[in-house]
Amino acid sequence: MSTQRPSIDEEQQLVIDELNSLGDVFGQYTYLLELSATLPVLSDEEKSACTLVGGCQSQVWLLVSKKDDGTVGIRADSDTLIVRGILSLMVSLLDGRTACEIRAANIAFIEKTDLKAAFSDDRLNGFTSICATIKTLSKTIANQ
Questions:
Q1: What CATH code is carried by the domain that includes residue 110?
Q2: How confident is the model over 9-54, as pLDDT tens digits?
Q3: Sequence-ordered list of residues with C-beta below 8 angstroms from that of 53, at least 6 positions apart, any chain
Q4: In which domain, by residue range, is 63 found?
Q5: Closest by alpha carbon to 130, among 66, 77, 71, 65?
Q6: What's the pLDDT at 1?
């Protein structure tokens, strides 16, 4: 008997609650740094111009693929530890979801925590670019 995974919104609310429970932005940054260590590193071959996300202040690479069960597989990496922590949260929310779920998702955990005030506009625009790229690549994969 398998249990159904909570929705992206439900899981995202847990992320928001966790981040907000850490108090100020310093506690949230520390948490992101800890998460960055849990994100698997992409190989140099996987870090190519084809996988590089445009519009990010840091270098961010995304690999989005179709899993055997038809869901979307997401792997990501960055040259910045804070961004790696954010990517770790995004992968945990979106990996193994259907393309339809991903396209419908409103990933807004940064906006609902103290991180929004601590991030520059460029960093926030990069987060938006990452979300848009994941949605676009998921749609492409679903249509294959």
A1: 3.90.1010.10
A2: 999 999 999 999 998 999 999 999 999 999 999 999 999 999 999 9
A3: 60, 61, 62, 126, 129, 130, 133
A4: 8-142
A5: 77
A6: 53
Which residue is associated with the tokens 């990010």?
56
Cβ density class 115-125: b for 16+ within 10 Å, e for less? beeebeeebee
Greatest alpha-carbon pair distance for the chain in Å reads 46
The DSSP call for residue 75 is E
C-alpha to C-alpha distance for 142 and 71, rounded to whole angstroms: 9
**In DSSP terms, which residues pair with 73 in a beta bridge?**
65
Please name the residues in contact with 19: beta carbons below 8 A apart, sequence gap of 6 or more.
28, 31, 109, 113, 114, 115
Q: Which of 41, 111, 113 is nearest to 81 (CA)?
A: 41
Domain count, the chain: 1
